[in-house]
Amino acid sequence: AARSGPAPTVVTRKVKRGDRFADLPELKDVRTQQAVADLIGVQNPFFAMHDGCAGATIAYEGRELINFASYNYLGLNGHPEVAAAAKAAIDHYGVSASASRVVAGERPIHRELERRIADYYGVDDAVAFVSGHATNVSAIGHLMRKNDLIVYDALAHNSIVVGATLSGATRRMFAHNDLDALEEILIQQGHAFERVLVAVEGLYSMDGDFPDLARLVKMRDRYGFWLMVDEAHSLGVLGATGGGVAEECGVDHKDVDIWMGTLSKTLSGCGGYIAGSQSLVEYLKFSAPGFVYSVGMPPAVAASAIACFDILKREPERVAKLRANGLRFVEQAKARGLDVGTASGTAIVPVMIGDSLRAVHLANRLRERGVNALPIVHPAVPERSARLRFFLTADHSFEQIDEAVAVTADEHDKLAKAGFGIKMAAA
Ligand code: PMP
């Protein structure tokens, strides 16, 4: 048909050859960090190249470091039984599912893993995604909509925030673990929305503390929201037998509407899952974009996660050892005047530093002395609350923990004396 109205103005741009993203304004922020580090002569600790299997130790530039930077909580990455399960699955299935499970990528091992996850939680069913991050983005983004409200903890993981943003729902944040503040939001605003989702984590990866899940369940029953718990860091870590934050808090798994977790920590693989009612799982499996339009999880990853569940069930002493290690770290750190914030002595212990560059500097000093612990800086944590984060594993010995704490306290003192003025806990 003939076009009516005035002719459109055609804008043409000259195409520059070479790197067409070199002028991207956002690149500046990325490069500033490196420039500042170069200026003051601090080695950038990110993307450091480690070799070998990440366990209680790791190889770095030909040296063996005591490793506190990996999620290998129960020491199952590299466990012969786990590796053998993955190898057997590769022999049987190849390395890829080769299609979305909806079309031709479904394998028995996928359903076997999902059954194991559902049994672990005592819920109807589970669905496994290829990435933990994509699980939150896809599940939250797909479940919630414009007239809904999503309320989450101020320290909620980026994937929860991105999922909430994507959903188009209204978002509210409450101060970390402050359930009074959450209740206030629900009272003031909850009624104005069609559906309300409250998202928390089972164990917070920045502070190493966990929410009062029993109170959250009571609030759920009172205010009627959907309660979602991200167990990325609490599965196999909290609770006497590794039953997660529900076991830790004496809560029935069925009283949480949406269990989310990852395979990248205790389960030594990669991927994520949602576990819950039959309707929830059915809805996501048949319509969540991150599942429907994405390849099925590599069968070897499913097989190794199943092997991890076997070991978790058979050897609860690993969970006990991990907890003993966490308590040991916190006790030693406090005795040396280090500030561990609200850490409760689990698999994650932060040592609070404050200034980002100081945290980076301290991490570099530690690495020189054989201890691998990474600094966590803004924007992963709020400005001026940089920290060194220690991930413990059941495979660490008390000697390794004591050594790491002693080196940290020593270097911390030296930096303070040198005028870095690092924040110390009140003695
Ligand atoms: N949720 C939480 C709480 C996390 O800490 C992470 C990442 N560490 C994720 C989700 C994403 O999981 P993954 O790294 O397995 O993609």
Notes on the structure:
The protein is an alpha/beta fold and 427 residues long. The chain has 2 domains: 36-67 and 316-420, Alpha-Beta Complex (Aspartate Aminotransferase, domain 1), CATH 3.90.1150.10; 80-314, Aspartate Aminotransferase, domain 2 (3-Layer(aba) Sandwich), CATH 3.40.640. It has 15 helices and 14 strands. It has helices spanning 27-39, 80-93, 101-105, 108-121, 132-143, 158-167, 179-189, 213-223, 245-249, 278-287, 289-292, 299-314, 317-335, 356-368, 398-420; strands at 50-51, 57-60, 63-67, 125-129, 149-153, 170-174, 196-201, 226-230, 258-262, 272-276, 348-354, 371-372, 374-376, 386-391. It has a 7-stranded mixed beta sheet, sandwiched between helices. Helix 13 (317-335) runs parallel beside helix 15 (398-420). The model is unreliable at 421-427 (pLDDT under 50). Residues 131-133, 136, 157, 159, 201, 205, 230, 232-233, 262, 264, 270, 272 line the site of 4'-deoxy-4'-aminopyridoxal-5'-phosphate.
